[in-house]
Amino acid sequence: MPLLASGFGSMMPLLLVLIVFLGLMSFMTRRQAKKQQEARASLENGLRPGTRVVLTSGIFCTIDTLGDKQAWVELAPGCKIVVLKAAITRVVDDDEEEFIVEDDVTPVPGSTEPTVPAEEASDGATNLVPEGSATGQEYPSAGEDRA
Length: 147
Known about the structure:
By secondary structure, this protein is of the alpha+beta class.
């Protein structure tokens, strides 16, 4: 019996170090998770309509309407989608914006499609259909021979 008691006594400091280490790791993990939850809650509470944000997909958009779990965001003027609030990664700073989106496109009277400003339309690209495509050719009707 004395050998068994002496062997356990020599392992006691190692066991105590292991327990302290595991307790410290558990404490640090919980602390980090709590900080992340607080940061997420702070982000969601700071969101307002008109705020520019980045989604998890990397898409820049503007918040239009906020709900409890979802938000309407505007990708481009007139193009809105619904996303989960969890998909909003961060608020965009003014110096991060590389392109400025302006609502300078005017709709054609009687149409829902916007028109391109004259300076953009006169870039010389008139034929956007690749050569050899079937566009502009007549297709045979169902009863005609296709050969």
